[in-house]
Design a protein that fits this description.
The complex is a heterodimer of chains A (470) and B (206).
Chain A: H1 7-15, E1 16-21, E2 24-28, E3 31-35, H2 39-49, E4 59-62, H3 83-97, E5 100-102, H4 112-118, E6 127-130, E7 144-147, H5 150-159, E8 161-165, E9 168-175, H6 184-195, E10 203-208, H7 210-214, H8 217-225, E11 234-236, H9 241-247, H10 256-268, E12 279-284, E13 291-293, E14 301-303, H11 317-330, E15 345-348, H12 356-366, E16 376-379, H13 384-393, H14 395-402, E17 404-406, E18 426-429, E19 444-447, H15 450-459, H16 465-468
Parallel strand pairs in A: 3-4, 3-6, 4-5, 6-7, 9-10, 9-12, 10-11, 15-16, 15-18, 16-17, 18-19
Antiparallel strand pairs in A: 1-2, 2-8, 13-14
Chain B: E1 6-9, E2 11-14, H1 21-24, H2 29-36, H3 44-47, E3 48-49, E4 53-54, E5 70-73, H4 85-93, E6 97-100, H5 105-112, E7 117-120, H6 123-135, E8 142-145, E9 150-152, E10 158-160, H7 165-173, H8 177-182, H9 185-198
The chains are: A alpha/beta (470), B alpha/beta (206).
The complex binds iron/sulfur cluster.
Residues 65, 111, 113, 132, 134, 350-351, 411, 414-415, 431-432 of chain A line the site of iron/sulfur cluster (SF4).
């Protein structure tokens, strides 16, 4: 009998074109997704070199990073200096080279990692790359997906391949019952708190266990989204029946006979029983309470019932300095209980947590309630498709009635691409990065689930959704 | 790739853990640096006070550290956003190598493609080099030798490191990676004709 293999090993082996020695391989790339921030530069550089695009049908583009989310925005509306030029050149070059392109005015526009699985472009059993570190999000459908730089993007455009060094494998088992008020975001934040922001360096992370098996594909994408936040460049959940139900019928998914063939192949990719990982981590979900970050790394996270730690308790001098800096930036004293910290703003958006299920969860908390006076609350749906679906269900009314601004889809306020909505403010946010300055100059970001963000917006302070809605 | 064989120069310590690419080149700078040049954006939040007033406290604003070609950093350097502006800004400033105990994976790959060598070394060795540099107030040299994969500290201590074979060779030769791959066209075509039978749906989006 053949040696049992992990999903990752099968995926990798099935994509190796050539062995480059020293653990590196030249890999077939099934999908390249470009976006407005770095996409046009990659195409322009290819153009300068005089080389053609190798596999145009496997290249896609979208406008998401620079476009303003302002309600009623125009096609080139951006708060980013020089952003108009980038959006326009992305548009022009996509048309020129015949790339499938979702313009800012396209009904299918949205954040790249929300759009690609939603349209069935990211499929199980495919390698997908994009010039953005959160490309691992779409590992949630059983793709092997990772973020690359713009020079690598140009390489893919020119060859539809990429040379990569093979990572080690890691399995993270989320076992046990997930308590009420606890969401996929809490699970992944908890994990990062446990294993650290570099706990996955050099690894490809498979998420498994009973909690993952029961989880929706959207929840799995929230988990995979943050694989890069513990430095696993790749994060994924091998496809199962939950995945197939999610993918079936989507615009770019295989149909008819091709679908059946594809599903048979996808099933064969599941990790074999007794396959061996380089590392395994098991998390008991029953112990996880809603999580909120208190610092400037996703690793600096605690349960809502916990307090800001004291750097003086740390023995490693490097770690102590890190904590001191984080606490100074975030302006919280050691020992402060997280529950009750006053906030200035609340943000529901990003490729982590702005899919339809996230908006439904948040709306359930907001229904019949009001955002606390003085809190600026904004919801940016993950894609235009999500936005329309939410409006069809009347979720936009719930958000607006509660006092949330209801925006167009895009990235803008997640990574401070101009506008500085949150400069100097304390924001509770469904995004994935609480780095210094990430959401604006001196913006203090606290990462949490959509439900915690909604509950906190109502309370005007970081709040335990379980008590707000009780 | 821009060729790199040896680097001999000032090594500047910025020994913080988790220096992410948003610190190296903040999001706000990404469009701005297209007009002002990448070097102006490097560590923008730390380097400037207000609008582009140099912060005298920041080490890269001081002689002779501002001539550094080697950066000494702590764990998980270059984590975060995939933005290639980060290695570009480091390179544009004048850096040719970054020495850290570990790197963000995407950043690590991006470095090679921008003529910047990422070197993994234990933190104790890095601290030792940093201490020597500080004792000399920056007036000392560190030598990085990519052919032999060694780093020589100011006191002459030599440590080895390992860079992935393919990337190392391309950097040593200054090879064009796309050319190298395109020379494998026959293998690529052979792979694809087999693969198209196995996974036809992967090639043509429906
Ligand atoms: S939503 Fe934020 S994290 Fe996601 S792709 Fe956009 S900028 Fe990056």
């Amino acid at each position: 009998m053949a040696k049992p293999q992990t999903f990752f090993e099968k995926m990798w082996n099935d994509h190796v074109i050539a062995d480059l020695g020293d653990g590196a391989s030249l890999l077939q790339i099934d999908r390249l997704f470009l976006h407005d921030l770095s996409g046009s530069a990659a195409i322009a550089r290819l153009e300068e070199s005089g080389r053609p695009i190798n596999s145009r049908d496997q290249v896609f583009g979208v406008v998401d990073h620079l476009i303003s989310s302002r309600p009623g925005r125009g096609p080139d509306d951006t708060a980013s200096r020089g952003g108009v030029e980038l959006i326009q050149s992305m548009r022009q070059l996509s048309h020129k080279y015949g790339i499938t392109f979702f313009d800012s005015t396209d009904a299918r526009q949205g954040i790249v990692h929300v759009v690609s699985p939603e349209l069935g472009i990211a499929l199980p059993g495919t390698t997908l790359v994009c010039g953005d570190s959160h490309t691992c999000t779409v590992g949630g459908v059983g793709a092997l997906a990772w973020g690359i730089g713009s020079t690598e993007c140009e390489h893919v455009l020119a060859t539809q391949t990429l040379a990569q060094v093979r990572p080690k494998t890691m399995r993270i088992n989320f076992e046990g019952e997930v308590g009420p008020g606890v969401y996929p975001k809490d699970l992944i934040l908890y994990l990062i708190g446990e294993i650290g922001a570099n706990g996955g360096i050099g690894y490809a992370a498979e998420f498994a266990g009973s909690a993952i098996r029961k989880m929706s594909v959207e929840g799995r994408m929230t988990i995979c989204n943050m694989a890069i936040e513990f430095q696993a460049k790749y994060g994924f959940v091998p496809a199962d029946d939950v995945t197939f139900d999610y993918i079936k019928g989507r615009d770019f998914a295989p149909k008819g006979h091709a679908w059946d063939e594809a599903v048979a192949y996808w099933r064969s990719l599941a990790t074999d029983e007794h396959a061996v990982f380089d590392q395994e981590v098991t998390i008991d979900c029953a112990r996880i309470q809603p999580q909120v970050t208190w610092g400037t790394s996703p690793q600096q996270v605690a349960g809502i019932g916990d307090r800001v730690p004291d750097p003086a308790d740390m023995s490693d001098p490097g770690v102590r300095t890190l904590l001191e800096r984080a606490i100074e930036y975030i302006q919280l004293r050691p020992g402060t209980p997280l529950d009750g910290v006053k906030i200035d703003a609340a943000y529901i958006g990003s490729c982590t947590n702005a899919r339809i299920s996230d908006l439904r969860d948040a709306a359930a908390v907001l229904k019949g309630r009001k955002v606390a006076p003085g809190v600026r609350a904004i919801c940016v749906p993950g894609s235009s498709t999500v936005k329309r679906a939410a409006e069809a269900e009347g979720l936009d009314r719930t958000f607006r009635d509660a006092g949330f601004e209801w925006h167009e889809s895009g990235c803008a306020m997640c990574a401070s691409q101009g506008g500085d909505y949150f400069a100097n403010l304390r924001v509770i946010s469904t995004t994935n990065r609480n780095f210094e300055g990430r959401q604006g100059p001196q913006t203090r970001t606290h990462l949490a689930s959509p439900v915690t963000v909604a509950a906190s917006a109502i309370a005007g302070r970081i709040a335990d959704a379980r008590t707000v809605i009780a | 790739m821009e060729k790199l064989t040896t680097v001999e120069g000032v090594a500047v310590p910025i020994l913080r853990i988790n220096i992410d690419t948003d610190q190296i080149t903040p999001g706000k700078e990404l469009v701005r640096m297209r007009t002002e040049g990448a070097a102006a954006s490097l560590f923008a939040y730390w380097r400037y006070i207000g609008d582009r007033e140099p912060n005298p406290e920041f080490i890269l604003n001081r002689e002779p550290w501002n001539k550094a070609q080697i950066l000494l950093a702590d764990r998980n350097f270059g984590c975060g956003s995939s933005r290639e502006s980060a290695p570009q800004a480091l390179r544009a400033w004048g850096f040719r190598a970054v020495i850290a105990p570990s790197f963000g994976g995407i950043f690590y790959n991006n470095c090679f493609r921008n003529g910047l060598l990422p070197i993994e070394m234990p933190i104790e060795d890095i601290r030792s080099i940093a201490m020597q540099m500080e004792a000399a107030q920056g007036n000392a040299k560190v030598i990085v030798d990519l052919s032999n994969q060694t780093v020589t500290a100011p006191d002459g201590t030599r440590k080895s490191f390992k860079a992935p074979g393919v990337l190392r060779e391309m950097l040593l030769l200054g090879a064009d990676e796309i050319d190298v791959t395109l020379r494998r066209a026959a293998e690529t075509d052979a792979f694809r004709s087999r693969d198209r039978i196995k996974r036809p749906w992967a090639y043509r989006a429906a």
